[in-house]
Amino acid sequence: MVICRTIASLEEYLSTRPSGPRLGFIPTMGALHDGHASLIREARAGGRFAVVSVFVNPTQFNDPTDFQKYPKTIDQDIFLLEKTGTDVLFLPSVDEIYPQGTAPAKHYDLGYLETVLEGQYRPGHFQGVCQVVERLLRIVRPDDLYMGQKDYQQCMVIRRLIELENLPVTLVVCPIRREPDGLAMSSRNLRLDAAHRAGATAIYAALEAIKHGDTPEQAKTALESKGFKVDYVTVANAKTLQPWDGKSQAVALIAAFYNDVRLIDNEVLASPVPGTRRN
Ligand code: AMP
Question: Is the dihedral of CA 82, 194, 256, 273 positive or negative?
Answer without folding.
Answer: positive
